[in-house]
Amino acid sequence: MSAILGTAGVWLGLMGALIGAVTLGLGLRRRDDSLLLAGRKYTWVIVAGAVLGVVAMESALLRHDFSLKYVAENGSRQTPLLFTITGMWSALEGSILLWALVLSGYLAVMVRHFRKRATDPLVGWATLTVFVVAAFFFALMAGPANPFRVIHGAIPTNGPGPNPLLQNHPLVAFHPPMLYLGYVGFTIPFAFAVAALVTGRLGEGWLVETRRWTLFAWGFLTIGIILGAWWSYEVLGWGGYWAWDPVENASFIPWLTATAYLHSVMVQERRGMLRIWNLSLLLATFSLTILGTFLTRSGVLDSVHSFTESPIGPWILTFFGLVVFTAVGLIAWRGDRLRSPGSIDSPVSREGAFLANNLLFAAFCFVVLLGTVFPLLAEAVNGDRLSVGGPYFNRMTTPIVIALLFLMAIAPVLPWRKASEEVLRKRLFWPAATATLVVVLCVATGLRGLSPLVVFWLGTFAAGSAVRQLVLSARRQGWRGLMGRANGGMIVHIGVVLIAVAFAASHAYGHSREFRLSPGQSAHLSGHTVTYLGSDTVKASNKTSVQARVRVDGGKVYGPAIQQFPFATQAIGSPSVKSGLHDDVYITLAAAPDQTGGSAVIGVIVQPLIIWLWIGGAVIALGTVLAAWPGRRRRPTAPVSAPVEVETKPEPVGAPL
Amino acid sequence: MSESASDVDVVVSAPRRHTARWAAITLGVVLLLFVAVLATRKSAADKQAESPLLGKPAPSLTGTGLDGSQVSLAAMHGKWVVVNFMASWCVPCRDEHPELVKFSQRHEAAGDAAVLGVIFDDTEPNVRRFFDQLGGSWPVVSDPGGRTALDFGVRGPPESFLVDPNGFVVWKGIGQVDANGLDKLVTQGKARGA
Amino acid sequence: MKGRLPWLVMGAVLVVALVIGAQGRSGPMTEAQRVKHIASEIRCPTCRNQSAAESDAAAAKAVRDEIDRRVRAGQSDGEIVAFMVSRYGSDILLKPPSSGVASLVWALPVVAVVVALAGLAVAFRRWRARPNVEVSAEDRALVERELERERA
């Protein structure tokens, strides 16, 4: 039953997307408004298809319908309700279904938002582009990644449940959907970039319309990445949160290009410059999400998260090829005609800082991308097999991060056009003085190490600049001074600084050790006392765990465990963390006692400031919301840019809504 | 990129250089190569069967067998030995086990080849139960601390190495082995040696 | 606050603080630190992308123990790394070597940044040499108006 419903949904979505794309294509070709109006209605067919598919999948999971291969492999009667629901995105096929759902949601919002401009070719081309992307993902589900495949022969009575790592922390319910909201959200700006290139309408009007979409997608992706780091910290048991794993990189690379775009778009709005560059960033961001999907789902790279044995690699690679060659082709075709005149007077100016910012983000992106795919390239060149891991990424990205922090300190106070030395001296004095004071205090309290101290200095400096801007703005406009893009952006900067400082501190000043302790015995590490009290065996419906009782600093008792899931091969450790504003005590049960009352090996990791990573994430989220908050509506700044000599209708003035 | 256009100073329409086009075309070529590289890659799981040990003497392997006897690879010189790293929790190990049983039975009479099991990250009682269930009577050594696995460069069970009668590693296999495949390797090896 | 002197003082204080801060970590590493350092650049054999120093997998522990034995036996870092490569192959190293094809992974980003910087420098020179004559005044007026509107 679910199989029939779900398959119907997938085909409905696929057909809707294809017919819609053809209708829009014809409408655009013949300049036939009625076809354009008819074409956009297929959005609702696509949405219906995706919803039907998801409902069918969830109901199959909840009803334990093991006649479905996906449910038989990822569901079980013992799995708690939450993880049964999240089972939909704990394996490849279901995650594509989630992708389709999110994409159709974005599509619906977009089509509704632009409903009054439905006959505008720009909107028509953008919708057509999203239809094509949607058609691809539905085709994946109709073909190689079919989530509704049925089991032939005897239907199993129970299944193994999701991967153990995906059923022992509630963050699994939030991290993937957030990540997808971000990842998939870049489809909309991409579609508008394609539409702008095809129609030749590069005025700033379309930018104002799509900037907020990018900001939303960026915000979700940021939250998704940070939740992923948090999940890995709480679940994986090694005390880290970022390992430069290909999947992490795959989500981080488009984040970098999107961040670059969010900055450089301001140069275009103010000065009408960098049009092609901004378009390229949007095109690149979307292409990189598809590339990331390929790298992590085709099995060409080893990764913690790699979905095993999937046949969809060639499909995604083909689609990636289609996307990038469309993008490159459009730029080659239109690019030179759409170049903007205009120039930047001085490198020491706001726009100069944005250029430097973009250079650094592009370099950052290049380093991470190159490091991620380099094993494949090297192997293709001369058969060398090598790994590119944490030590490479840390060494290469540290200078970039330091330069970016420096820019974050300077740029917000730089005026547009040109800055004088005196202005800088005046505006930067207090931020710099505060930062220097902080470093002096750090050194006085015994902190050592050049790179963390440099990060602390630059971090405080950058935060000081941001706070200065916010204070000035709040003085002028009261609480409204915290809203709007520039001010929300400053709050985002503060969040980024928190993360950078916490990252540097936890890497430089973390300590870890393993202790073999008998019940009642204590161990000490970095000023914390850990007392092992004993272990219990705990049976839950979906797992059996050996849980240690460990008292930390004479207070609360924590329960790191080793969990055995019935169908899983190996037992997995499950850490327990005492979080504090100052530092985290991360406790793992490295080896359970051999017999009751015996000694156990307790792993203890003390790392400072970890909690500020998550707080920083929350601050970024807050800043993003404030930045996207619809304030006083500025009119599209289209007239600022010089006229573009391409055959085109005039840009509609005034944002319709 | 030609500079000829830029010295014509046009006021309204900016001088048209083809920077964007050339950049896009260059990028397109690079991307084409990149996609070609990606398209020709094998899956990561298939890539690991190479080993720096191939053609080198096998690392020393000694230990206590499940039955308490002393087992050593060196003592098996003169035979082809399949050194098999396994664990009871590993599903492919369970799947390949009947093949190893078949292989060891085929060569039992002739005595020209044998299997030597090494426990990878597992306990002796578990492995004993595994052998009771699935059969197989070849020596199995435990590997406390994983030293032997490290000496052989094992990344995860099941992995098998074929060691020739002179004690040289001639083949490494990742994942399941099958009896006929092993036989073929032994026959090939004998032919080469002869 | 307007002159340069406060900045010079601040710079001097900062440099002194950083110089003090950068010291105190020197001195030869202890054996345990050496083990950790070497292990942090060896990939844990059974995991995917963690170093042997971080992972709690049995194979990572085996690697740490082996490094520990060899450090105690007086081997150099290079010898220990070479041993690991001789058993697992070169992809056991998390850090690609700086010779051969692998050196490209180190060099390419640097080259790219240098080229981009050079490109920017050329662009700035061109901009300075040929200031934007056509729209400057109008542009400025619009920018001013926008700024006004924002201030309002």
**Series of secondary-structure elements of chain B, N-terminal to C-terminal:** HEEEHEHEHEEH
What proportion of the residues of chain B form beta strands (DSSP E)?
15-25%
Average pLDDT over all residues of chain B: 80
Lateral arrangement of strands in the main beta sheet of chain B: 5-4-3-6-7
Structural class of chain C: mainly alpha
Largest interface: A-C, 74 and 67 residues
Largest sheet properties of chain B:
5 strands, mixed
Contiguous uncertain segments of 5+ residues of chain B: 1-14
Number of helical elements of chain B: 5
Biggest sheet of chain C, in brief? none
Helix content of chain C: 55-70%
The fraction of residues in strands of chain C falls at under 5%
Query: Which structural class is indicated by helix and strand composition of chain B?
Result: alpha/beta
> First CA to last CA of chain C: what distance?
30 Å
Shape of chain C: elongated
Number of strands of chain C: 0
Describe this structure in words.
The complex is a heterotrimer of chains A (657), B (194) and C (152). Chain A is an alpha+beta fold. Residues 304-308 and 633-657 of chain A have low confidence and may be disordered. Chain A is globular and about 80 Å long. Chain A has helices at 2-30, 33-40, 42-62, 69-74, 81-85, 92-113, 121-142, 175-185, 187-199, 204-235, 246-271, 275-297, 313-334, 350-382, 390-410, 421-444, 450-477, 485-509, 611-628; strands at 511-517, 522-525, 528-539, 544-552, 557-558, 561-564, 572-574, 576-578, 583-591, 600-608. Chain A is built from 19 helices and 10 strands. In chain A, helix 6 (92-113) runs antiparallel to helix 7 and helix 10 (204-235) runs antiparallel to helix 11 (246-271). Chain B has a 5-stranded mixed sheet with strand order 5-4-3-6-7, covered by helices on one side. A two-stranded antiparallel ribbon of chain B has the order 1-2. In chain B, helix 2 links the parallel strand 3 and strand 4. Chain B starts with 18 loop residues before the first helix and ends with a helix. Chain C is built from 6 helices and no strands. The mean pLDDT of chain C is 83. Chains A and C meet through helix 11, helix 14, helix 15, helix 16 and helix 17 of A and helix 1, helix 5 and helix 6 of C.
